[in-house]
Amino acid sequence: MPEKNTTLKQFAALLDWELWLTPVLLAVVLLLCSFYSYLLFHTLAELFAVIVGVVMFVVAMYTYKHARDDFVMFLATGYFWVAAMDLIHTLLYKGMVIYPIDLANHSTQFWIANRYFESLVLLFAPLLCSRWLHNGVRFIAFGLIAVVCYVLIMSGYFPDAYIEGEGLTRFKIISEYIICLILVLAVVNLYHHQDQLKPGIFPYLTASIVLTIFA
Fold first, then answer.
1. Cβ neighbours around 84 below 10 Å, total
2. Tens-digit pLDDT profile for the chain (215 aa)?
3. For the chain, what is the domain count?
4. Residue 90 neighbours by CB under 8 Å, 6+ apart
5. 76 lies in which domain range?
6. Which of 22, 72, 94, 161 could form a disulfide with 104 if both were Cys (CB 3.0 to 4.6 A apart)?
7. Within a domain: 75
């Protein structure tokens, strides 16, 4: 019972309106941009996510020697590569005309692959972060996963996610449900491993995962 009360008190911090002020303002700005151009809206939203992922990694890396927080370092490393794949997804998005190809399928494939990667990072973070593994090795390991995804998609070996003239494929639709399930399991896993988290982190992580599910 005391543990549950402590968890509820942590979630009470999410009721602070100042916490949501900046995200809501950003959402409003993005919404207004969407009325002008959906491509602009999508690009800004994705670039914001990319910047957050990179900044998260940089901050975690430079504070690690003081904080020694393996959980945050694990997440930050994973999200660096999530950001990298999100950037490729953005550059490949139909209408960007940056890559030599302009196929909605490739962009959608990167989105799905990246969501799988992100959800699995969140799921396994509490289980793997405490295991001895040099941060450099972890960075390379996550990077190799991202590279494999890139090669599979660009070489045509990744399942189609969008077919011109037909729309989203069954693989893409089913994958979204699977990813949501993994994210729910990630929340449950985080709840049972709160002892590995710094005080106050769990409710914010839970809120971010819930928002990811509904995104």
1. 19
2. 455 556 666 666 676 767 778 888 988 998 899 899 999 999 999 999 999 999 999 999 999 888 888 889 999 999 999 999 999 999 998 888 777 775 789 999 999 999 999 999 999 988 877 666 788 889 999 999 999 999 999 999 999 999 988 899 999 999 999 999 999 999 999 988 888 788 778 888 988 999 899 87
3. 1
4. 42, 43, 46, 47, 50, 96
5. 49-214
6. 94
7. yes
Q: DSSP assignment of 163-209, as one string?
A: ETTTEE-HHHHHHHHHHHHHHHHHHHHHHHTGGGSPTTHHHHHHHHH
- The one-letter code for the residue type at 178 is I
What's the Cα-to-Cα distance from 44 to each of 38, 52, 106, rounded to whole Å?
A: 10, 12, 19
Q: How many CB atoms lie within 10 A of CB 67?
A: 13
What one-letter code names the amino acid at 53? G
Closest CA to 200 of 81, 69, 78, 80: 69
Find, among 196, 211, 199, 215, the residue nearest to 74 by Cα.
196
Query: 32 in a domain, yes or no?
Result: no
C-alpha–C-alpha distance, residues 42 and 93, integer Å: 9
Instruction: Please state, in angstroms and as integers, the Cα–Cα distance from residue 172 to each residue in 153, 161, 162, 168, following that order.
Output: 14, 5, 8, 6
Residue 19 placed within a domain: no
Distances (CA, A) of 175 to 8, 115, 125, 196: 32, 9, 21, 30
Residue 67 pLDDT: 82
Q: Could you tell me which residues come within 8 angstroms of residue 169 by beta carbon, excluding any fewer than 6 positions away? A: 159, 160, 161, 162, 163
pTM: 0.88
